[in-house]
Specification:
There is one protein chain. The protein is of the alpha+beta class. The chain has one domain: Cytochrome P450 (Cytochrome p450). It has five helices and nine strands. The longest helix is centred in the last third of the chain and has 18 residues. The N and C termini lie far apart (48 Å). The N terminus is likely disordered.
Length: 179
């Protein structure tokens, strides 16, 4: 991947202003946890699992699904030749479900270790905001789970999802009992 560099189209920077991907990480966590009520209940009983749960949300339903890169020289990647100055689309969300890297990759597991996901990129392209996003999620999610008792998705109401580079939940109807 060192032969690939960030593509600087006009859209770069507009969709990711830090708070958007963190907001989506938190919404994705609520979606994952309400889709997996056993994991939600366990996390409420064992809040110390929050860091690994957040990493699993990042792997299982990452805020950013793919990235554009441009090759700086000819490169061989996965048995495919990519010429210099060619656009490549790196599907990090797909890499996060790689069965060669993750045992039962389609299973949501809040205790998954190791969890070497690519939600924040890798190497020189690693997201500079990753520590802040993790910190914000580690603060907000426990507070939400403590305050929103009996958290459930509303049955029969579709979740509004908009995708592109960033996976965005447009609406996520939930019910809860206030603490």
């Amino acid at each position: 991947m060192d032969q690939l560099k960030t593509h600087s189209d006009a859209f770069t920077g507009r969709w990711n202003r830090g708070q958007k991907t963190t907001k989506n990480l938190i919404a994705n966590a609520i979606l994952c946890l309400t889709d997996h009520p056993d994991s939600l209940a366990r996390l409420q009983r064992e809040p110390a699992l929050m860091p690994t749960a957040i990493e699993e949300v990042l792997r299982y339903l990452p805020p950013v699904w793919f990235l554009f890169r441009r090759t700086t020289q000819d490169v061989e990647l996965g048995g495919q030749h990519i010429p210099a100055n060619q656009m490549a689309l790196a599907w990090t969300a797909s890499a996060n479900r790689d069965a060669a890297q993750f045992l039962q990759p389609d299973r949501f597991d809040i205790q998954r270790e190791p969890n070497r996901h690519l939600a924040f990129g890798h190497g020189i392209h690693f997201c500079v905001g990753a520590p802040l996003a993790r910190l914000e999620a580690k603060i907000v999610l426990p507070m939400m789970l403590e305050q929103l008792k009996d958290l459930k998705r509303v049955e029969g109401v579709p979740v509004g999802i908009h995708t592109g580079i960033v996976f965005v939940i447009g609406n996520l109807p939930i019910t809860f009992q206030p603490a």
